[in-house]
Write a structure and sequence with these properties.
The chain is α+β, with helices and mostly antiparallel strands and about 325 residues long. The chain contains four helices and ten strands. The chain folds into two domains: about 230 residues, no CATH class; about 55 residues, no CATH class. Strands 1, 2, 3, 4, 5, 6, 7, 8, 9 and 10 form a ten-stranded antiparallel sheet that branches.
């Protein structure tokens, strides 16, 4: 079980040592530059948003909402997601609230959450901008079969060993941490550092740093948890290409090819766009765009392992049920 990060200030000195000095925001349309002349995409940012990755069916055929529609959607989403509207002990809805379909006791109350509270500034109905319908392409038939087989295997073996638990359960990472970036319930913050020959992306979620060379250097022959990334500049845009994902860590699988693009729009905003291509899973590529908005920070330590008894409790409970001859609840 993940444990929400506590208030210990992030102090990874190695990464800080790599950071270039801050650049004063420039005006008059002059691009921001690092001391060595590169486009400046560095800073502390948040990517939290209420804009869903895929377009909801209620907005089919609509790229964006009016100001009035956006305000109504934001208000309804904030109410729907508010965990404090449920009694923390019984899970029953508090007086005056229409319960959500799922109901039940939840992991945290609102003190721990840091979700988005508004749509993107352009009031888009989805973060996906291609395909035009705002949704991921259909999965291949082989990918659908493989997904069914994985679900069936998980149902039978999920309590066998720590190796059968998710990467999140094991504090080894989470899909929200990326790459690519995806907004989640909390820890939607990041730091970007630049040097003359490297870019470092440090996520608050799972406290994982990607140290990315600005050169096409040799790649290891094996997959890695966050893939293997190489970057280059295309005008004012930083382009990051990532391959060599481990089969248990990528968004789609080991064949995923990821292109990320970061472009400074103004002193407070960096456009983050990514394209996922995996012909073994999706019938076509898809592209999403998330605005990275400057925040004063700091980002915090992500304390998942320390005092985390969730994983041992899950497995110990399963062994006890087996000892009693009782069926494991799937």
């Amino acid at each position: 079980m993940l444990k929400k990060c506590f208030v210990a200030v992030f102090t990874q000195m190695l990464v800080l040592a790599l950071a270039a000095p801050p650049v004063m925001a420039q005006t008059g349309g002059t691009p921001m530059r690092t001391p060595d002349g590169q486009p400046d995409v560095s800073g502390i940012f948040t990517f939290r948003t209420l804009t869903p990755l895929e377009r909801p069916t209620q907005f089919e055929g609509r790229d964006s909402l009016s100001a009035e529609e956006a305000a109504a959607f934001e208000a309804s989403e904030r109410t729907r997601q508010n965990r404090d509207l449920f009694d923390p002990v019984s899970g029953a809805p508090n007086a005056g609230y229409q319960p959500r379909a799922e109901g039940g006791v939840l992991s945290y109350n609102e003190f721990w959450y840091e979700r988005g509270i508004e749509l993107t500034s352009d009031k888009r109905t989805s973060l996906i901008i291609d395909p035009p319908n705002g949704r991921r392409p259909p999965r291949t038939e082989a990918a659908q079969v493989a997904a069914r087989e994985r679900r069936a295997h998980t149902e039978i073996h999920r309590y066998d060993s720590y190796e059968n638990r998710t990467m999140t359960d094991r504090c080894l990472g989470t899909s929200v941490a990326g790459p690519p970036l995806r907004a989640g319930a909390y820890n939607n913050n990041m730091m970007i550092f630049q040097t003359a020959d490297h870019v470092v992306i440090q996520n608050e979620m799972a406290s994982q740093a990607r140290v990315i060379p600005l050169a096409d250097t040799a790649k290891p022959p094996f997959g890695q948890l966050k893939g293997v990334s190489r970057a280059h500049w295309d005008g004012e845009t930083l382009v990051i290409e990532t391959t060599n994902f481990r089969s248990d860590s990528a968004l789609t699988g080991p064949n995923m090819h990821l292109i990320e693009r970061l472009t400074r729009l103004d002193p407070d905003t960096v456009a983050y766009e990514y394209t996922v291509t995996d012909a073994t899973v999706y019938t076509a590529p898809y592209t999403a765009m998330i605005p990275l908005r400057r925040t004063d920070g700091p980002i915090f330590e992500y304390a998942c392992h320390e005092g985390n008894i969730g994983l041992s409790g899950i497995l110990a409970g399963a062994r006890e049920l087996e000892r009693q001859g009782r069926e494991l609840r799937r």
